[in-house]
Write a structure and sequence with these properties.
By secondary structure, the protein is α/β, with parallel strands linked by helices. It has a single domain, classed as NAD(P)-binding Rossmann-like Domain (Rossmann fold, 3-Layer(aba) Sandwich), CATH 3.40.50. The strands form 2 sheets. The protein has a 7-stranded parallel β-sheet with strand order 3-2-1-4-5-6-9, sandwiched between helices. Helix 1 packs parallel to helix 2 and helix 1 crosses helix 7. Bound molecules: NADP nicotinamide-adenine-dinucleotide phosphate.
Length: about 260
Amino acid sequence: MAQATSFPYKTAAITGASSGIGEALALELAGRGCHVGLLARRQDRLEQVAREVEKMGARAVIAPCDVSDRRQVREAIDRVRQELGPIDLLIANAGVGDPVKATKFDVDRVELLYRVNVLGAIYAIGAVLPEMLDRRFGHIVGISSLAGYRGFPYSSTYCATKAALRVQLEGLRVELRPFGIYVTTVSPGFIRTPMTAKNKFYMPFLMDADVAARKIANAIARKRRTFDFPWQMALFVRLLRLLPPFAYDRLIRPYKEW
Ligand SMILES: NC(=O)c1ccc[n+]([C@@H]2O[C@H](COP(=O)([O-])OP(=O)(O)OC[C@H]3O[C@@H](n4cnc5c(N)ncnc54)[C@H](OP(=O)(O)O)[C@@H]3O)[C@@H](O)[C@H]2O)c1
């Protein structure tokens, strides 16, 4: 259920709002009375999401852009700001998760993952931060992943981008707190979205995107520093992190599909 009274922000910009977690977050925040700026490449999908948001009584501004292009991100954020006013909350969510195998190490694909998952988030942060610092108010959320806690075979590039985002946000969190700006790193396990629909392997504790969005919005409202979920996967990954390299390699090698 929507929790309109408890949500502390009036305006949010969400990257990757055209599907999956980003779309679900747009609807969840709208239900909590927050106006949303929707960023992604597919304009038709953004228009659909905007219509859903408006049905819930919140305002939506679409700002189509490719997050791997710094200028486009800046212009998209400016557009959201012009229409909705100062941005209280940024959710840097846009991401791609294609596997890159070591035996077919496609450097172009590796570069794309870094551009979208890491630089895309950095460009969005760069576009909102000066105003947040001026206002001494704001909240930056990055959607990392539980996959970012170790290098999984076949998706180590994805894991590395998510680790980079997590570490970047950790330092920013400490630096920005005295300026009234909160930073939350969200690390989901498996969420049912177009990204995971391609996976052929079993995904334990797979969660629907609307459930994930509700949990993420609650974590934002509580100004959590980090939010790793679902707890069962978070616990599993925490245990994986404790394993020494030889034990990790032995355990993870059989998972050919990862
Ligand atoms: N699903 C999971 O199990 C899971 C788990 C952990 C973390 N995550 C993270 O959650 C985030 C959302 O993923 P999802 O599962 O919701 O996948 P999704 O449904 O495929 O959504 C990805 C979103 O990112 C946008 N995007 C991709 N490349 C872009 C680009 N170059 N410029 C602008 N937008 C771009 C897509 O929009 P356009 O194609 O319209 O541009 C789309 O809105 C990602 O960062 C992902 O790594 C997902």
